[in-house]
Amino acid sequence: MGLGDKIGNAAEDMGGKAKEAAGNATDNDRLRAEGQKDQVKADAKKVGESVKDEFKRD
């Protein structure tokens, strides 16, 4: 996994957390759900990249 990918995934995760927090603060269900979706996408990318890294080690 490249450093740029790791930074991008972390940024997407942090952005999702910020959206979720803003949704919670403003009682905005759409924004809260969008933030949670962004976090799930970032987590899935992290898992995919981890799998790639494991295959590169062999």
Automatic annotation (TrEMBL):
Ranges of Basic and acidic residues composition bias in the record: 27-58
Organism in which the protein naturally occurs: Arthrobacter nitrophenolicus
The name this protein goes by in its record: CsbD family protein
UniProt cross-references to Pfam families, sorted A to Z: CsbD (PF05532)
Record family assignment: Belongs to the UPF0337 (CsbD) family.
InterPro entries named in the record: CsbD (IPR008462), YjbJ_sf (IPR036629)
Region (Disordered): 1-58
Domain CsbD-like: 5-57
Top-rank taxon: Bacteria
